[in-house]
């Protein structure tokens, strides 16, 4: 598996419950829980993507508290995980940061969604492709009611939705991210 996997949590453009395109709020739980999962799986960087300056500032304050402030001394493990988080205004900025980190190589973008698409790839297929390609890879997760359709089309691949034995399909983004990252990067000893 390549060692240059990145995650992005997209807060804009996403849909709200009514189908309108909105920007969602960054949550403290998403910052912490996804960062800790990302560190566990060796993710190089976790991007929180929002154009809203107030949200960028709020996330920056939380990150500084745990990476530079009293929180860093109180919980060094949290500091280690949160030191991999970057807040950026858009996908293009995340892609530029990845290229700078990877000798100019462009990231293959992988979108996740709860909506089934005809061109969606399954996890084993994408896992195989990732093992054969040096990367880098950027796996995007949406907030709200999912990433806007035109935004999704920017991805090179779209993963099939997570499905369980029930028809209910409304996982938190933290749960979905953990399941998907484990399916793509987890130790498989079948």
Describe this structure in words.
- The protein has 190 residues and is α/β, with parallel strands linked by helices.
- It has one domain (5-52, 83-185): Alpha/beta knot (3-Layer(aba) Sandwich), CATH 3.40.1280.
- It contains 8 helices and 8 strands, in the order E-E-E-H-E-H-H-H-E-H-E-H-E-H-E-H.
- The chain has helices at residues 28-40, 53-67, 70-74, 76-82, 91-101, 123-132, 149-152, 173-185; strands spanning 5-10, 14-15, 21-22, 45-49, 85-88, 108-111, 137-142, 157-158.
- The strands form 2 sheets. It has a 6-stranded parallel β-sheet, sandwiched between helices.
- A hairpin with a 5-residue loop joins strand 2 (14-15) and strand 3 (21-22).
- Helix 1 packs parallel to helix 8 (173-185).
- The longest helix has 15 residues, at 53-67.
- The chain starts with a strand and ends in a 5-residue tail after the last helix.
- The mean pLDDT is 94.
Keywords:
single chain; 190 residues; alpha/beta; Alpha/beta knot; 8 helices; globular
């Amino acid at each position: 598996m390549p060692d240059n996997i990145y995650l992005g949590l997209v807060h804009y453009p996403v849909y709200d419950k009514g189908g309108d395109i909105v920007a969602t709020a960054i949550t403290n739980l998403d910052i912490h829980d996804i960062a800790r999962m990302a560190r566990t799986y060796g993710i190089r960087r976790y991007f929180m993507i929002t154009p809203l300056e107030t949200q960028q500032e709020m996330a920056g304050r939380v990150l500084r508290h745990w990476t530079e402030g009293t929180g860093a001394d109180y919980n060094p493990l949290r500091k280690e995980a949160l030191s991999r988080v970057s807040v950026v205004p858009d996908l293009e900025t995340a892609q530029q940061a990845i290229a700078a980190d990877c000798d100019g190589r462009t990231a293959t973008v992988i979108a996740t969604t709860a909506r089934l698409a005809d061109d969606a790839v399954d996890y084993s297929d994408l896992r195989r492709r990732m093992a054969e390609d040096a990367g880098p890879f950027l796996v995007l997760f949406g907030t709200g009611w999912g990433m806007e359709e035109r935004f999704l089309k920017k991805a090179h691949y779209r993963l099939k939705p997570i499905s369980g034995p029930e028809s209910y399909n409304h996982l938190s983004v933290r749960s979905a991210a953990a399941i998907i990252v484990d399916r793509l990067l987890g130790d498989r000893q079948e």
